[in-house]
């Protein structure tokens, strides 16, 4: 059986991993040059930093076992410091929630997908953007943005964020009443836009927390964390990851990046009441137009599509933007593909 997976993020990698001991020939099409999607890592000036999803959270026994026991654990690091909270007025408080364990890797969170794929025989085609599908008998044909043929497959798994998956479905040649219902269901999934700003300083902060989260969602900074709390990430100084609120991110998304980073640094300085933070020695940024899903789509059209060898997976299928949920979704969907014999 030949399976095409669109997207080499955590869900796509987990699905390939779930099929590693089957006779499926898996081909993954990834539009970028790397794996793990929004669980992304960069390197700059000797620092390693996770600028999308910040960590893997121990909210799933299955994913916890996978990360800490089944996959190689060399370079796996635990974030020991806690996550505190702040409100719309910038009042920072120690969280009263029980802390879950948090992990990344010395080489960055993208190691999760790399280690999953390393256990498989899947072929990954990078910088290949799938632009549409067409039903071909009991299989599917894929095409790229230049209308070039990418091959025929017995089944297809779509893992991009819901808005991008909806665009793919809208461009799909499939004469079935389910096509319109499925596209509408996926397109209705709401997503938050997040602008991440990276701020490095030649000094360290004397604070007891790893991260701060805005719990009332009414501050211009939505999340702030310290990459220096991840062993091996920041050899000197402090590197802050500021993820701005969805409203601020949408408003500033297309503004000149230098102005956006400067304004974000000022907001961080105000939040922490430290004027030094308005003047970082270097910066970076990443806009995530489709960062976090706010709810899941109805299950019925997604399950009905599986009867036609078309599968969907991702954190958005679970209704929340968490790395462990993306992995869970990929493992579950891969398991169903194996059970269906497709």
Q: Which structural class best describes the helix and strand composition?
A: alpha/beta
Parts with pLDDT < 50 across at least 5 consecutive residues: none
Principal-axes geometry comes out as: globular
Say how many strands there are: 20
Radius of gyration: 21 Å
Give a quick summary of the entry:
The chain has 342 residues and is of the alpha/beta class.
Can you tell me about this structure?
There is one protein chain. 29% of the residues lie in helices and 30% in strands. By secondary structure, it is an alpha/beta fold. It has two domains: 2-37 and 113-187 and 296-340, FAD/NAD(P)-binding domain (3-Layer(bba) Sandwich), CATH 3.50.50; 41-109 and 191-293, Polyamine Oxidase, Chain A, domain 2 (Alpha-Beta Complex), CATH 3.90.660.10. The strands form five sheets. It has a seven-stranded mixed beta sheet, covered by helices on one side. Strands 10-2-1-14-20 form a five-stranded parallel beta sheet. Helix 1 (10-18) packs parallel to helix 3.
Question: Could you list some keywords that capture this structure?
Answer:
30% strand, Polyamine Oxidase, Chain A, domain 2, alpha/beta, FAD/NAD(P)-binding domain, 342 residues, 2 domains, 5-stranded parallel β-sheet
């Amino acid at each position: 059986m030949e399976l095409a997976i669109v997207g080499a993020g955590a869900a796509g990698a987990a699905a390939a991993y779930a099929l590693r001991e089957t006779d499926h020939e898996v081909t993954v099409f990834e539009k970028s040059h790397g794996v793990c999607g929004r669980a992304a890592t960069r390197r700059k000036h000797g620092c390693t930093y996770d600028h999308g999803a910040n960590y893997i959270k121990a909210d799933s026994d299955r994913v916890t076992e996978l990360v800490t026991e089944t996959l190689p654990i060399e370079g796996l690091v635990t974030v020991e410091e806690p996550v505190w909270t702040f409100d719309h007025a910038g009042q920072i408080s120690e969280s009263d929630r029980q802390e879950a364990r948090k992990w990344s890797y010395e080489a960055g969170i993208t190691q999760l997908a790399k280690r999953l794929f390393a256990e498989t025989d899947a072929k990954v085609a990078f910088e290949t953007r799938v632009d549409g599908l067409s039903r071909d008998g009991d299989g599917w044909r894929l095409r790229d943005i230049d209308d070039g043929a990418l091959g025929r497959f017995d089944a297809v798994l779509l893992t991009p964020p819901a808005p991008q998956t909806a665009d793919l479905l809208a461009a799909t040649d499939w004469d079935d009443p389910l096509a319109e219902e499925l596209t509408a269901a996926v397109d209705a999934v709401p997503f938050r836009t997040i602008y991440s700003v990276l701020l490095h300083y030649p000094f360290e902060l004397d604070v007891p927390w790893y991260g701060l989260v805005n719990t009332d969602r009414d501050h211009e900074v939505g999340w702030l964390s310290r990459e220096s709390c991840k062993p091996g990430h920041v050899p000197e100084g402090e590197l802050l990851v500021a993820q701005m609120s969805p409203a601020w991110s949408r408003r500033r998304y297309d503004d000149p990046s230098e102005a956006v980073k400067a304004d974000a640094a000022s907001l961080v300085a105000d939040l922490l009441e430290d004027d030094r933070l308005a003047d970082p020695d270097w910066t970076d940024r990443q806009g995530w137009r489709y960062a976090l899903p706010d709810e899941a789509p109805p299950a019925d059209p997604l399950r009905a599509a599986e009867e036609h060898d078309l599968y969907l997976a991702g954190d958005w299928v679970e209704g929340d933007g968490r790395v462990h949920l993306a992995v869970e979704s990929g493992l579950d969907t891969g398991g169903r593909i194996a059970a269906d014999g497709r």
